[in-house]
Design a protein that fits this description.
Residues 16-205 form the Metallo-beta-lactamase domain. This is Glyoxylase, beta-lactamase superfamily II. InterPro entries: Metallo-B-lactamas (IPR001279), NDM-1-like (IPR050855), RibonucZ/Hydroxyglut_hydro (IPR036866). The structure is a single chain. By secondary structure, the protein is of the alpha/beta class. It folds into two domains: 2-165, Ribonuclease Z/Hydroxyacylglutathione hydrolase-like (Metallo-beta-lactamase, Chain A, 4-Layer Sandwich), CATH 3.60.15; 226-296, Winged helix-like DNA-binding domain superfamily/Winged helix DNA-binding domain (Arc Repressor Mutant, subunit A), CATH 1.10.10. Helices cover 38% and strands 23% of the residues. The chain is built from ten helices and 15 strands. The protein has helices at residues 37-49, 64-67, 70-77, 85-92, 96-101, 169-175, 183-194, 212-237, 242-252, 260-279, and strands at 2-5, 10-14, 19-24, 27-31, 56-58, 80-84, 125-127, 130-134, 137-143, 152-156, 159-161, 200-202, 239-241, 283-288, 291-296. A seven-stranded mixed β-sheet has the order 1-2-3-4-5-6-7. It has a five-stranded mixed β-sheet with strand order 8-9-10-11-12, with no helix packed on it. Strands 13-15-14 form a three-stranded antiparallel β-sheet. Strand 3 (19-24) and strand 4 (27-31) form a beta hairpin. Helix 7 packs antiparallel against helix 8 (212-237), helix 8 (212-237) crosses helix 10 and helix 9 packs across helix 10. The protein is globular. Bound molecules: zinc ion.
Length: 302
Amino acid sequence: MKMQQLNDTNYLFKSSVNVGYVHEGSQGLLIDAGIDKSAIRKVVRQLEDKDLPITHLIITHAHSDHYGGASYLKQQYDVKVIAPRFESAILQYPILEPTYLFGGNDPIDELRNKFLEGPPVEVDILVDEGPTNIDPFSLEFIETPGHSYQQMAVAINNTLYAADSYFGQDELLKHKIPYITSVEKTIHSLYKLKNLTYSGAVPGHGKYEENYQETINKNIEYHENLLHNVYYTIEKANMISHEEIVARLCQDMNVKVDQLSIFLLFRTAVTAYLTALINQEKIEHYIQHYRWMFKIKGEKGD
Ligand SMILES: [Zn+2]
């Protein structure tokens, strides 16, 4: 995990899950905490080698690959933890993530793994969208829901730390069906970020870029294509069950699904495209023979 300096105050620890860092005098602010103690230790070791302070932590959203290392930071460095109001509910009760993915049932043990559930962490400062002063840091929180319910991108000293509101182009192709809870909110958040001008931006998964608008455009195109794919799959099938459309999209996109937790993530993402098509009144949904079914609006079905 290499430490990359972005400007006078801002840094990036580039890894499969990025961690940001901002230094102001005797204070140092981390942006996200990696998936676990060992991931964040690689970051703090480098900061300590350079005598840089660790005093604050922003958690952009309550996915364990971004907050799994947070409770260690709080214990070891007594950092002030800052998080979006809604996400903080999950940070305090991390079992909520495997619970919502599991359709509300009490999650079985195999779902309670470090990829879906990190150690709980107490949040000290709850934030909503807008400019915020947390001495000595002057921050702008930009609400970017769609990937997580109240995810916040953070702009500070002319760098946009964009959380998972967009993915790097390589990561987008690697994920194939990126995790989202709402495609409309995802696309709306992408347009919102595209119109902001900072000297550079870095997503949670991907590289720092000055010309980040191009990558954001690629993300918008990618979601629009997937939305069309879901529509055409329904059109081709005439009528199709929820279970079947999840399977077909995963098959078409050639994603590897070999365990329940991965399946539930893809099921949620595919459902986000379905709910968008329902909201746009392009498809209809109904229950038939105890199955959740979809067809093109106005078509008869079988
Ligand atoms: Zn995420």
